[in-house]
Amino acid sequence: MNPDEKSKIIQNLTYLKERLVELDPIIDRLIENDVFRFHHRAQIEQISKPTPHRQFNEFIKILTSSGNRDAYSTFIEALKTEGYTPIAQKLQKTAPKDFVVRSGSRLANRINSASTSAGRKTNYEPVVPVQVAIPDDAGAASLPVARSDGCTDCSSTVKAVLEAFGRNQEHVLENIERQRREDRQEMEKQRQKDKQEYQQQMLHLFGKCQAEKHDIIKQTETSLEKLQEEIDHVRKVNVEYSFLKEQYDYLREKQQGMREKDNERRERLLQLTKEKEEGKRENQKLETKIEHLETKLQMSEDTREDIENKQYESNKYIERLESEKDDLMKQLREKEQENKSLRDRVDDQYVQITDLLQKQRDHEERHEDPEFSQTREQQIRKLDMIYGMMQSISKEKTASVPPGKLEFRPKKMIIGTNLAKATLADRRKMRTDRFDS
Predict the structure, then answer these.
(1) Among residues 57, 82, 101, which one ends one of the domains?
(2) Which of 101, 136, 163 corresponds to the end of one domain?
């Protein structure tokens, strides 16, 4: 393939890629016309990471690098045969000017080219006058004869020209026929040579095809053997698969049961764990309460010991107080005896003083003596002072004696000028009130 054809294919590469969908029929046609080989198909199909885009690029690469000079025309014929006529027309429009699609034989192309060139020269090239050489034997008859009227007779000249043109035409036809015979001989030789080359190529191709066929048969037999082995292996695998599937189903059912039991056990364990956690929390609460109670108990023990100690001390103190009380009661009884004797004495003296005062009153009524009255007033003040002292002593004793034991009541004494008003019954009552305790 020449550079112009390659450039035209490259120019229409996008157009081809968009519309050329199936490459297998085109590749088959190219293999039949000896443009491609079988390994080219394998090269296209076995490209790394096969995609339609990469396979198309590999196809174009092999086509443009083909050493066959008819690769381009064969490709166009294959496109037309497989129904890709618009693609072929597109390529023909962009093909080189001197390119002609291959017809039945090369001779027809060459003859058509020659006839076309000759026709073009006849129609468009100017006619050049031919100077015909007059032969020597023509004589005077062949020369133009002058007429009397001054015009030259041209009939003989025209006749001579026509005869010369006929001879030249015959010469040209002979040359053309000789050239045709030479061309036919050359074409026959070329055809025989091409035929021999074609036969050699066909023999080579046949031998190669036979070798490839033998290889294909051998590969097919090997593939069949491998396929049979694969089938046997698949059958064996199917048997093993069935056995393993049964075991799998059995184990799955068993695992399902174990999973259910495990779930139940896990639920029970979770429940027990929850109860255990609750028990732990309750235990912690109880331990806290126990610690609190132990603390309280310890405090109570300490308090009880303190109370016992205090109670012991209190008992000892009470015993001491009881002893002191007994002593005091004994002393009190003695003092009461003394007090009683003193009261008796005071009572006696009181009676005596009362009698004396009555006598003094009677004497004062009988005798108006200022000195006596003054003396009596002094005695009354002294007596009042003595009774005041007695009353204060009686109050002090009453405060020192426990309640309910001894009570001193104040005396109701009438001293001075009012003494006469007091009767004897009143004096007895006063005496009784003072000493009733």
Answers:
(1) 101
(2) 101
CA nearest 62: which of 46, 41, 83, 82?
41
Residue 415 in any domain: the answer is yes
Helix axes 424-434, 155-366, angle to 10 degrees: 140
In the DSSP assignment, the letter for residue 50 is -
Q: Does residue 170 sit within a domain?
A: no
Q: Cα(73)–Cα(82) distance, rounded to whole angstroms?
A: 14
CA distance 422 to 424: 7
CA distance 56 to 323: 137
Rounded Cα distance between 297 and 277, Å, is 29
**Which tokens sit at 187?**
């074409």
H or E stretch covering 337: helix 155-366
Q: Is 170 left (phi over 0), alpha (psi -120 to 50) or beta?
A: alpha
Phi, psi of 152 (to 5 degrees): -90, 140
Domain that holds residue 82: 1-101
Residue in the block written with tokens 């064996």: 236
Looking at the structure of the chain, the number of domains it has is 2
Mean pLDDT, rounded, of the chain:
73
Residue 45 phi/psi, 5-degree rounding, is -75, -30
DSSP codes, 235-283: HHHHHHHHHHHHHHHHHHHHHHHHHHHHHHHHHHHHHHHHHHHHHHHHH
pLDDT tens readout for residues 126-181: 333 333 344 444 443 344 444 444 445 578 888 888 888 888 888 888 888 888 78
CATH code of the domain in which 34 resides: 1.10.533.10
107: nearest Cα among 174, 2, 189: 189
Q: What element of type H or E holds 88?
A: helix 85-93
Contact 143, 155 (CB under 8 A): no
**Predicted model pTM:** 0.25
Task: Compute the distance between CA of residue 405 and CA of residue 427 in angstroms, rounded to an integer.
Answer: 26
